[in-house]
Amino acid sequence: MKILVLGGCGFIGSHIMDRLLAAGQSLRVLDRAPERFRPPLAGVEYVFGDYSDNTILVEALADIDVVLHLVSATVPGTAALDPVGDVTKNLIPTIGLLENLRKLRIPRLVYLSSGGAVYGIPEQVPTPEDHAQRPTNSYGIVKAAIENYIRMYGANEDIATTIIRPSNPYGPRQGHMGIQGVVATFLNRLRQGETLQVWGDGSVVRDYIYITDLADLVVSSILSTQTGVYNAGSGIGTSINEVISTLEEVTGRKAEVDYRPVRTVDVPRSILDIGRAQMSLGWKPQTAFAEGVRLHWDWIMAEAGHK
Predict the structure, then answer these.
(1) By three-state DSSP, how is residue 10 classified?
(2) Domain boundaries, the chain
(3) Nearest to 166 by CA among 228, 234, 227
(4) DSSP letter, residue 130
(5) d(CA 162, CA 23)
(6) pTM
(7) What digits encode the pLDDT tens for the residues 119-172?
């Protein structure tokens, strides 16, 4: 099986690539730039460019059996600042991808969506996959729209589709510039002795999944004959204050916290029901939050020592 990984050089993609290579799969990557934290992987074919460039995309799709779509040009914060850009950089290129899958008769697509943004403020917690989609921001609206287009093409063009909705992944190779990723951002600030900035009183609850657990689920879905929609989380809620407490315990450093006014865009409580992935794919997360934080911290400190 030959797999094209769109966005394979990113944080999530790099870990999925490791798992796919270990499973003996043939891989091609299409990304805008090489991996940031390590050299190219042996045995992987790399194509550099934007998947919105149809010429590059068609060339990358040659002889491919499965497409794994990990690309997102925005995060919730940047999508809110530029909703038009969110549509033009994410939704429209994905429709172009689907058109190429139809024309080239590529039979399989796996897409990484969002496990929080598409549901909006949930009526049921933990939240199952069949919960109504009521996204409250541009990021979630575009993700939900992409999901609907994928379902449409899957039904009308005989493309087997799988949609995975991850919660909040964290772990080695994650950027820590403060745009996205609370764990990475806070660990880096602790390392540098900087203040942690928290919107509200720290009671907001999220579901955090260690990166290799997410990668294992994605690979299980690719290697399985099952299709459909799967939540990818720990199934456990952790408040921001609990996150900070765990980070202090793991690092041995006391955090200075700046509590700022609450943001109306923040969903108060988001935890995913992961029962479907457990039942259908035989998957379950293996890494407890404190252990994942320790692994992430060890990597950050090792990287800092290399600079």
Answers:
(1) coil
(2) 2-170+209-235+276-281, 182-204+237-270+287-305
(3) 234
(4) T
(5) 19
(6) 0.96
(7) 999 999 999 999 999 999 999 999 999 999 999 999 999 999 999 999 999 999
User: What is the spatial distance between Cα 37 and Cα 114, in angstroms, rounded to a whole number?
Assistant: 25
Look at domain 2-170+209-235+276-281 and name its CATH class. Answer: alpha beta
C-alpha to C-alpha distances, 282 to 160, 221, 230, 278, 279, nearest whole angstrom: 20, 10, 12, 5, 6
Provide CATH code, domain 182-204+237-270+287-305.
3.90.25.10
Task: Please list, in sequence order, all residues whose beta carbon lies within 8 angstroms of the beta carbon of residue 92, skipping any fewer than 6 positions away.
Answer: 52
Q: Does residue 139 carry a catalytic annotation?
A: yes
Q: Residue 42: exposed, middle, or buried by beta-carbon count in 10 A (0-12, 13-18, 19+)?
A: exposed
pLDDT bucket at 266, cuts 50 / 70 / 90: confident
DSSP code per residue over 13-66: HHHHHHHHHHTT-EEEEEESS--SSSPPPTT-EEEES-TTSHHHHHHHTTT-SE
Q: Among the options 51, 139, 153, 170, which is catalytic?
A: 139
Mean pLDDT of 39-68: 97
Residue 179 is predicted with a pLDDT of 58
pLDDT band for position 93 (cuts 50, 70, 90): very high
Structure tokens of 193?
Answer: 């002795």
- What is the Cα–Cα distance from 288 to 253, expressed in whole angstroms? 20
Q: Give 238-271 as a 3 state SS string.
A: EEHHHHHHHHHHHHCCCCCEEEECCCCCCCCECC
182-204+237-270+287-305: same fold as 2-170+209-235+276-281? no
**Residue 234 corresponds to which tokens in the numbers above?**
């720990």
Q: How many percent of the chain have pLDDT more than 90?
A: 90
pLDDT at 213 over 80: yes
Paired tokens of 103: 């024309």
Residues contacting residue 273 through CB under 8 Å, at least 6 positions apart: 124, 126, 127, 128, 129, 231, 235
Report the distance separating Cα 111 and Cα 6, nearest Å. Answer: 10
Tokens 């799709």 belong to which residue? 61
